[in-house]
Amino acid sequence: xxxxxxxxxxxxxxxxxxxxxxxxxxxxxxxxxxxxxxxxxxxxxxxxxxxxxxxxxxxxxxxxxxxxxxxxxxxxxxxxxxxxxxxxxxxxxxxxxxxxxxxxxxxxxxxxxxxxxxxxxxxxxxxxxxxxxxxxxxxxxxxxxxxxxxxxxxxxxxxxxxxxxxxxxxxxxxxxxxxxxx
Length: 182
Prior knowledge:
It is a single chain. The chain has helices spanning 11-20, 41-52, 82-90, 106-122, 144-155; strands spanning 75-76, 98-100, 127-131, 159-164, 174-179. By secondary structure, the chain is an alpha+beta fold. The protein has a domain at 93-179: Ribosomal Protein S8, Chain: A, domain 1.
């Protein structure tokens, strides 16, 4: 490494750099190993408490037309032709937009989903993808967002049908939603 500064740095910048770097010394090696900072105490305590909880019995396998939580995995209004619903379930309808609700609280997810559906309707989209996650970190509460999202979608008249997305589009952690067109 050369001790001469590059030609495009003026003497004032060089003086500022030397003043800022005063008292430092070069590393003895080019390879630096960074250590992970320790977890904060509350996270450690929470993990210890969770480890002490009794294990819940595993639920039986989902029945036909149900997901892992035992809820209906899909929804169809009577006005939706069975053929269109079949295409939605097979993943043959391409999602024109998607929203990812991971990490949001139920209140935030509700507002974001409501706005997303309204915007998709305004854009005249037929099918959208809603990613709610599988709820693997929800603990004993189960998949909270997944249950809430399905509940909300059933209530909105703009939603004609929904079904779990194909595996390559998120599987049981996402829904393809068929929307009413204006």
